[in-house]
Write a structure and sequence with these properties.
heterodimer, A: alpha/beta, FAD/NAD(P)-binding domain, 5-stranded parallel beta sheet, B: alpha/beta, Elongation Factor Tu (Ef-tu), domain 3, 2 domains, 7-stranded mixed beta sheet, 33% helix, globular
């Protein structure tokens, strides 16, 4: 987000490479001090004006020179604090060292030992609160932004491998004769499927939609995660022999119990994902022009409504859009609305930027693109016209009060601050309740009072041989946390079937 | 991916197709629906209630009307062509021995009504069917319904078949008779269902309606199908599709159905233009052939 051009970043990287070469030509290796002095490699991005009008990826990825410089910044700490911050325990210093050595194939292999979906994780993981939060370089330089850019390096390794056309497949063990059903092809399901297949089990992944990838295809927009990448990474599983059964809703097309009792599966993993979208429960919320973020994003991503010439699924013609919420999904919705041609997009959030759960990089990108943030505001009702279409929001201002139990300062409404602001579209992005479908059709599957499936430390549910992970257990979480749960479940299932 | 097994055009805009779907045919119950797509990439997901199922042959029957681009694309499919299908979705109709059941179907709504009539009859109910349409040509599933129902009352707007009346007329008469229904099921255009609910309300007869709202996933994820029922927001896909007709906010539901009317009308118009162009070129080809033959 430095705003430096791609060429400028490349020049800076080459200069740094020159300095590194000079040190090595003196016959010595870089000292930690030398490494700390190397510049953090910024991510080249499409310029805001251009990208706000297209669906192409915003972050364009490192060049080789940038990747090399960034890799030299790593101190290769013995205790590798970064690894303990990674839910799937990628060997971070190991793969960075391989980049440094110019062994890019080796770098890919090091990552893929624990994570088969690096081009996805490199793009959408919140590294700043995981691996990079623990990085010694960032700590030494007293800035989280100065940490080794592990995510960008991971992405570069994966993109470089794909560009070279050499994709290594993990080894698949001899057939175990055991069969496992995986419900859902999102991050949790795919990760579980890979780890099960490695052990030689037959794996069938059931997906309700017509495409694999779950939230990575219906939720996260093209401009953050190109769908072609998700397709390539889920095809790897097919190459490993994982079977996909699309357009199949476990619970309806087939009962969960029937998979075990009649269809010959030895175990089931449920990674069905986030469920029913939450609404504000304010008057006027069912008016035309009010959408859940799930609906808005699914129309635009999975159903490709942005491709107006070819897509049959319509998208609402919006001029003034209000997005309610402060998470990543709110940022995705706002930026999508802008790209679909809205004249003005405003994010309404009850607290301030500091409390926003969205990644700071995403908030920054949204601001650069011209999204307007109305902090300390929240609507009280949607006002409709005579045809039942939304035409305005009544909005209330807030002030931050004392910190609540979670440590966040809770917003307090300012009396008399109501005002009416015209909006034709309202996108509600305040999270999801859990989907009741599987629990309703599987009576002995225990859920908590919010409907999330209850699991033990090994991701096992209340039913023997049935495991669960990801958003259906956690509520709204991240791609990588879902992967972490999938990995743990797969280990437990492998042990059960071993 | 599944295939179309048979296809029949019931009227100018109404098609009846049989689709290969063995699991759906086995698992489905009366009142459930499926989502179909003409293709995986750009086609819309369309919810359609199941009109019939044959578990032996692994087939289900769907009836649909061409409304927008997607239903036109579906209508253009021929026997053997692949389509995408997900189901069965929604909750099955609650079937029990109520006593006397009156089932009201309007136009294309007669198709989804059929399995419910069947299930109510099998459960030992006396079943009266009121079949309504604008005109005789649009009355569908008449043979099937006649063979199951204890009585079939036909009503058309123009009197071209049965009584010249709206379905609400015979419905009110039965409600006011000395043997009123114990339950009413009404499926058809929203305005018809609304007025059926209004007709039964004074008699206090429980009236089930099946809502066909805008949907994307059909599994509870998008919330596009939400409707206010008894002051509470419900999702048609996971809480429905059937609700107590006396509690549905009909005006809200109907305005939501009109969300994309402008785009739909444009698509419908475009499809008709395409069709006209295709017909014109066929005609001119035929004329050329005829001339050549001369």
């Amino acid at each position: 987000m430095s705003g430096a051009s791609k060429e400028g970043l490349e020049r800076q990287a080459r200069e740094a490479l020159g300095r590194i070469a000079a040190i090595r030509s003196e016959g010595r290796e870089l000292s930690p001090r030398d490494r700390l002095a190397l510049p953090v490699q910024d991510m080249p991005c499409q310029v805001p004006q251009a990208r706000a009008a297209n669906m192409l990826e915003v972050a364009e990825g490192y060049s080789e020179a940038q990747a090399k410089v960034e890799a030299e910044r790593c101190l290769d700490c013995k205790n590798a604090p970064c690894v303990s911050g990674c839910p799937v325990r990628v060997d971070i210093p190991g793969f960075i060292k391989k980049i440094r050595e110019g062994d890019y194939v080796g770098a890919t292999r090091a990552i893929k030992r624990t994570n088969l979906l690096p081009s996805i994780c490199g793009r959408v993981c919140p590294q700043e609160s995981q691996c990079q939060a623990n990085c010694t370089v960032g700590k030494s330089l007293k800035s989280i932004d100065a940490a080794v850019q592990i995510g960008r390096l991971e992405r570069w390794v994966a993109d470089n491998e794909r560009a070279c056309g050499a994709c290594d497949l993990p080894d698949v063990g001899n057939s175990s004769g055991k069969r496992v059903a995986v419900v859902g092809s999102g991050p949790a399901g795919l990760t579980t499927a890979i780890d099960l297949r490695r052990e030689g089990h037959e794996v069938v992944v059931y997906e309700a939609f017509q495409k694999t990838g779950g939230v990575m295809v219906y939720g996260i927009p093209e401009f953050r995660l190109p769908k072609s990448l998700v397709a390539i990474e889920s095809n790897l599983l097919a190459e490993m022999g994982v079977l996909y059964q699309l357009n199949f809703l476990v619970g309806r097309t087939r009962k969960l119990r029937s998979l075990l009792a009649e269809d010959g599966f030895d175990a089931v993993f449920i990674g069905a994902g986030a469920g029913l979208p939450k609404f504000m429960e304010m008057p006027g919320e069912n008016l035309v022009g009010v959408f859940s973020a799930n609906e808005y994003l699914t129309r635009s991503n999975l159903m490709k409504a942005y491709d107006r010439d070819r897509a049959a699924t319509p998208i609402y013609p919006s001029r003034r859009v209000a997005v309610l919420g402060g998470g990543n999904v709110a940022m995705d919705s706002a930026r999508m609305a802008l790209r679909l041609g809205a004249e003005e997009v405003r994010v309404l959030y009850r607290r301030t930027r500091e409390e926003m759960p969205a990644r700071s990089e995403e908030v920054g990108h949204a601001m650069e693109e011209g999204i307007i943030f109305d902090f300390l505001t929240s609507p009280t009702r949607v006002i409709g016209d005579k045809d039942g279409r939304a035409e305005a929001l009544e909005i209330l201002s807030y002030a931050l009060g004392e910190p609540d139990a979670s440590g966040r300062r809770s917003p307090v409404a300012i009396k008399g601050s109501e005002r009416v602001v015209p909006f034709d579209t309202v996108i509600v992005a305040i999270g999801n309740e859990s989907n009741p479908l599987l629990s309703r059709t599987t009576p002995d599957l225990k859920v908590d009072k919010r409907g999330h499936i209850l699991v033990d430390g090994a991701q096992k549910t209340s039913i023997d041989r049935v495991y669960a992970g990801g958003d259906i257990v956690l509520g709204a979480a991240t791609v990588i946390l879902a992967m972490g749960e999938g990995r743990r479940a797969a280990a437990a299932i492998n042990e059960l079937l071993g | 991916m599944t295939r179309i097994l048979s296809k029949r055009r019931l009227s100018e805009e109404v098609y009846r197709v049989e689709v290969e779907a063995p699991l759906v045919a086995r698992e489905r119950r009366a009142g459930q629906f499926v989502i179909v797509q003409a293709d995986d990439d750009f086609a819309e997901r369309i919810p359609l209630t199941i009109a019939d199922a044959d578990p032996e042959r692994g087939a289900i029957t769907l009836v649909f009307q061409t409304v927008g681009a997607s239903t036109h694309a579906l209508a253009a499919k021929e026997v053997g062509d692949p389509i995408t299908l997900l189901g069965p979705l929604g909750n099955p109709t609650h079937i029990e021995r109520f006593g006397k059941a009156v089932c009201v179907g309007g136009g294309i709504g007669l198709a989804p009504l059929h399995p419910i009539v069947k299930a109510l009859k099998e459960a030992g109910n006396e079943v009266v069917v009121i079949a309504g349409a604008r005109t005789a040509e649009l009355l569908i599933m008449q043979e099937e319904l006649k063979s199951i129902a204890d009585e079939l009352i036909v009503a058309t707007d123009d009197g071209s078949a049965g009584r010249k009346a709206l379905v609400t007329e015979p419905l009110k008469e039965i409600c006011a008779s000395d043997r009123p229904p114990d339950i009413v099921v009404a499926i058809g255009p929203p305005i018809m269902m609304k007025f059926c609910a209004e007709a039964t309300r004074p008699f206090g007869v429980k009236t089930l309606v099946s809502l066909n709202t805008i949907m994307i996933d059909g599994t509870g994820m998008c919330g596009g199908c939400r409707v206010s029922v008894g002051g509470e927001t419900k999702f048609v896909c996971v809480d429905g599709p059937e609700f107590d007709g006396h509690l549905v906010d009909w005006d809200g539901m109907m305005s939501r159905l009109r969300s994309y009317r402008k785009q739909e009308e444009e698509a419908h118009h475009r499809c008709h233009l395409d069709l006209a162009a295709a017909l014109a070129s066929e005609t001119s080809a035929a004329e050329r052939l005829a001339k050549g033959a001369l």
